[in-house]
Amino acid sequence: MHAAFEPPSSLDVMLPKVSEALVLVTQCIVTITLESADMDAHAAVLEQNSQDFFNEATFADHGIVESLTELLRLLDLFLPRINFGKPVRADGRAALPTPTQPQDVGDGPGSTGFAYLKRDLVRLLGILCHGIKAVQDRARLCGGIEVVMNLCVIDERNPYLREHAIFTLHNLLQGNPENQAVVEAIKPSGKWDENGVWQET
C-alpha cells in the first residue's frame, strides 16, 4: 500500500523544464525503438535491438519499466487530469485548485509545461513490453497494470492519453494469462457520470 500523497508546499520553477526534457527524451527513445524494430524486420537480425537494450538497462537495481511505472503513478497523483476544462483527481472526483496545483492547459502563456508527459510515458511503456512476456511480468510485479488502467481516461493536458493507455494495456495482456487474471480480478467500484467524473457506488 502506498502512503497518501501530499503535494509539496512549493514547486521548483525548473520542474516544467524537466518535464519538457523528459517528454523529448521519451519521444527519442520511442523513435529509436520503433526504427530499430522496423530495421530488424527488413535486415539481418542484430545482436541486440533497441527494445532489448532499454528493457535490460538498469540503474540502482531499477529497470526502465519499473521507473516508468513509478513515475506514472506519481504523476497521476501530482497532476490532476483535466477533463472539460476542470481538474479531476486520480480517484475521479473533481479537484479544487490549490496554490501548488497547475491550473492551465496547453502551450500558451502561463502553461505549466506538463503537457503530453503522461501520454508519452505510457506510450513508451507499451512499446517496451510489446511481445516480451518477461517485461510484461515485470510491469505486473511493480503494479504497472493498475497504473495503466488508471490512465485509460480523457485528459486535456495529454491528448490521446486514453488511446495510448488502452494500447499499452493490450500489450501488457497479450499472451500473458497472469496479467489477464489481474485485470479480471479488478471490479468497478463506481460509474462515470454525464460530466465524465467517476462516482463511487
From TrEMBL:
InterPro entries hit by this protein: ARM-like, ARM-type_fold, Ataxin-10/CTR86_families, Ataxin-10_domain
Pfam families documented for this protein: Atx10homo_assoc
Any one GO biological process: cell division
Coiled coil: none
Cellular-component GO terms for this entry: cytosol
Domain Ataxin-10 positions: 117-194
Keyword Zinc-finger: no
UniProt keywords, alphabetically: Cell cycle, Cell division
Keyword Cell cycle among record annotations: yes
Family under the similarity heading: Belongs to the ataxin-10 family.
Function: May play a role in the regulation of cytokinesis.
Protein's UniProt name: Ataxin-10 homolog
